[in-house]
Amino acid sequence: MSGGVDSSVTAALLKDAGYQVVGAMMRFWPDDKRDATFDTCCSPDAAYEARRVAEQVGVPFYLLDYREQFQRHIVGPFLEEYAHGRTPNPCVNCNTKVKFDELVKKAKMLGCQYVATGHYVKRVENERGEVEFHRGDDPRKDQTYFLWGTPRAALPYILFPVGELEKPRVREIAEERGLLTARKPESQNICFVPGKVQDYVAEHLPQAQGSIREIGTGEVVGEHLGTQFYTLGQKKGLGLYQSHRVRHVVHLDPATNTVWVGDYEDCLWTGLKAEGANYLLDLAALPREVEVQVRYRTKPVRATVLHADEHGFELKFEEPQFAVAPGQSAVLYAGPRLLGGGLIADHARALPALPPAYVGQTAVRSR
């Protein structure tokens, strides 16, 4: 229970269905919680609201301490990825490493048969009795994208009671039951980041002056204070010498502290390689033709699987895709069924040679 309306209704629906329900919230916020962090979900106030909802529903409630795991699995890797020129998705990591791994193990230790969450995902049993994850019935809220890393062994122990509902209906149920979270707004930000991600990254990673170079020629066209402040496809705020030229970030190279820019066409990917793969079916059953989603809010596109093993996979898109960002998730589908996914690896392309004496400059400021 996060203190939001979705998990509140989840608890109520399970209780109505005759389950013996135990409400639990994972504590992530540290003792020295900063202002504007963990304020809309998984906060002290949210824990109070979750406890109140549990009382309304008539189930016990426990606050579980996962601060150390959250720091190790989520916050640390988040900063490490930016330091390596990649764009991470901490929500995927949280579901993969904490909620549907450590929490499922804890629930089984305590004798619980299932872990249920308020994700908009459908749990489907196929003709062989195997559990599959499918897209939720509300296309605007479907959250399968964030669950590709769920350990396959955990699938039978997870329930999604709101997966077949649309969001307005969930709020109606909460209103009908008088749940205090019925009108609570949704959380949109990264829970541990106060304000802008760039400001958070600047506070934790040293700034280092480097060059912005043209991908076609190697020409220096600007300067920057760290590759961690850029993402693929970005065209605003580049501070180029010739500001009238429209340029996109094409490649980030922390090793030489270089930001490479180019035309829109230079940002088009014909395919991708992914690492750290996780599959929710037997690898031998992975279709050769799949749909892949490379961002949460984008439509899936058709792709051909060129290679796949337990470590990763390689895809060729049916049509080139813009700014496929390393560090983000490539999530595989067959229709509504979630097949698995992996982390997008950097693309290999020929870069203009840097001058022999070129060395990335040292850090100039660290907050």
From TrEMBL:
<dbReference type="Pfam" id="PF03054">
    <property type="entry name" value="tRNA_Me_trans"/>
</dbReference>
<comment type="function">
    <text>Catalyzes the 2-thiolation of uridine at the wobble position (U34) of tRNA, leading to the formation of s(2)U34.</text>
</comment>
<keyword id="KW-1015">Disulfide bond</keyword>
<feature type="domain" description="tRNA-specific 2-thiouridylase MnmA-like C-terminal">
    <location>
        <begin position="270"/>
        <end position="344"/>
    </location>
</feature>
<dbReference type="GO" id="GO:0000049">
    <property type="term" value="F:tRNA binding"/>
</dbReference>
<feature type="site" description="Interaction with tRNA">
    <location>
        <position position="119"/>
    </location>
</feature>
<keyword id="KW-0547">Nucleotide-binding</keyword>
<keyword id="KW-0819">tRNA processing</keyword>
<feature type="disulfide bond" description="Alternate">
    <location>
        <begin position="94"/>
        <end position="191"/>
    </location>
</feature>
<dbReference type="GO" id="GO:0005524">
    <property type="term" value="F:ATP binding"/>
</dbReference>
<keyword id="KW-0067">ATP-binding</keyword>
<dbReference type="InterPro" id="IPR014729">
    <property type="entry name" value="Rossmann-like_a/b/a_fold"/>
</dbReference>
<protein>
    <recommendedName>
        <fullName>tRNA-specific 2-thiouridylase MnmA</fullName>
        <ecNumber>2.8.1.13</ecNumber>
    </recommendedName>
</protein>
<dbReference type="Pfam" id="PF20259">
    <property type="entry name" value="tRNA_Me_trans_M"/>
</dbReference>
<keyword id="KW-0963">Cytoplasm</keyword>
<dbReference type="InterPro" id="IPR004506">
    <property type="entry name" value="MnmA-like"/>
</dbReference>
<dbReference type="GO" id="GO:0103016">
    <property type="term" value="F:tRNA-uridine 2-sulfurtransferase activity"/>
</dbReference>
<dbReference type="Pfam" id="PF20258">
    <property type="entry name" value="tRNA_Me_trans_C"/>
</dbReference>
<feature type="binding site">
    <location>
        <position position="26"/>
    </location>
    <ligand>
        <name>ATP</name>
    </ligand>
</feature>
<feature type="active site" description="Cysteine persulfide intermediate">
    <location>
        <position position="191"/>
    </location>
</feature>
<feature type="site" description="Interaction with tRNA">
    <location>
        <position position="328"/>
    </location>
</feature>
<feature type="active site" description="Nucleophile">
    <location>
        <position position="94"/>
    </location>
</feature>
<feature type="region of interest" description="Interaction with tRNA">
    <location>
        <begin position="295"/>
        <end position="296"/>
    </location>
</feature>
<dbReference type="InterPro" id="IPR046885">
    <property type="entry name" value="MnmA-like_C"/>
</dbReference>
<comment type="similarity">
    <text>Belongs to the MnmA/TRMU family.</text>
</comment>
<keyword id="KW-0694">RNA-binding</keyword>
<keyword id="KW-0820">tRNA-binding</keyword>
<dbReference type="InterPro" id="IPR046884">
    <property type="entry name" value="MnmA-like_central"/>
</dbReference>
<feature type="domain" description="tRNA-specific 2-thiouridylase MnmA-like central">
    <location>
        <begin position="198"/>
        <end position="263"/>
    </location>
</feature>
<feature type="binding site">
    <location>
        <position position="118"/>
    </location>
    <ligand>
        <name>ATP</name>
    </ligand>
</feature>
<dbReference type="GO" id="GO:0002143">
    <property type="term" value="P:tRNA wobble position uridine thiolation"/>
</dbReference>
<dbReference type="InterPro" id="IPR023382">
    <property type="entry name" value="MnmA-like_central_sf"/>
</dbReference>
<keyword id="KW-0808">Transferase</keyword>
<dbReference type="GO" id="GO:0005737">
    <property type="term" value="C:cytoplasm"/>
</dbReference>
<feature type="region of interest" description="Interaction with tRNA">
    <location>
        <begin position="141"/>
        <end position="143"/>
    </location>
</feature>
